[in-house]
Amino acid sequence: MRLFNPDSKFMVALTKMADLMWINILTLALCFPIITMGAALTAKDYMCYKLLKNEETGTTKGFFRSFKQNFKQATLIWLIMLVVIVLGIFDVFFALGLEGDGTQIVRAVMFAFLFFIYIGCIMIFPVLARFDNTIKGTIKSGLHMTVAILPRAILMGILYLIPVAILLFIGIESPLIPIVIMFGISGPGYLSAMLYRKAFEQVENRFYEEHPDQAPEIDPVEEAMQAAMKRDEK
């Protein structure tokens, strides 16, 4: 049957779902040692973006390649984020304890600022996974990218909060829990890649225009396949 042809849309989608499930398992496994969480999230974003662009065939190999290559920078960035998270928790308790006139405005401003930091942290890992830069440059670029695609970055933040909300407010007995376990991290990661893909491609195209010698060579057959896929998407 054509439906089960390896090149059919159904089988391609099924394969991607299996890859995302495996990415989710790898990410969860490597997030448990808290110190490795930054590298695990970076590898997850690396593979989600690769899957979206059909650039990677070996999911496990690609995941661990990114994990190893970005381990040092990702870990240092993650440690910085932990400090920011601790300070953010103190700020939340401080805001909740405020009383008097104008309290609601102060709380709203503080929570809006903390949410921006949260979505900025989400964006930093995809930037680290895709672009070579210093730690300072990666953080700066991540925050700049967040501002550049702010509405989509907000949606990204909401996507990552949905699995957390299911666990906290619906409970472990919910029929949605298996989905959270299988796709709770990789699912939002893949959907987020769809949201920031255009912005990333603009940055990449600008870089390759300025440095044509570093532009990747595209096989004519692969180029034709990509063009066909774009026509199918339309």
Structure description:
- The protein has 234 residues and is mainly α.
- The chain has one domain (2-233).
- 79% of the residues lie in helices and 0% in strands.
- It has 10 helices and no strands.
- It has helices at residues 9-31, 37-52, 59-69, 71-96, 103-130, 135-148, 150-170, 177-183, 186-210, 220-233.
- It is globular, with a radius of gyration of 20 Å.
Strand content: under 5%
Biggest β-sheet description: none
**End-to-end CA span:** 25 Å
Please tally the helical runs, counting DSSP H or I stretches of 4 or more residues: 10
Rounded to an integer, what's the Rg over CA atoms?
A: 20 Å
Key terms for this structure?
single chain; 234 residues; mainly alpha; 10 helices
Task: Give a brief outline of the structure.
With 234 residues, the chain is mainly alpha-helical.
Chain-wise SSE layout:
Elements: H1 9-31, H2 37-52, H3 59-69, H4 71-96, H5 103-130, H6 135-148, H7 150-170, H8 177-183, H9 186-210, H10 220-233
Helix pairs in contact: 1-2, 2-3, 2-4, 2-5, 2-9, 4-5, 5-6, 5-7, 7-9
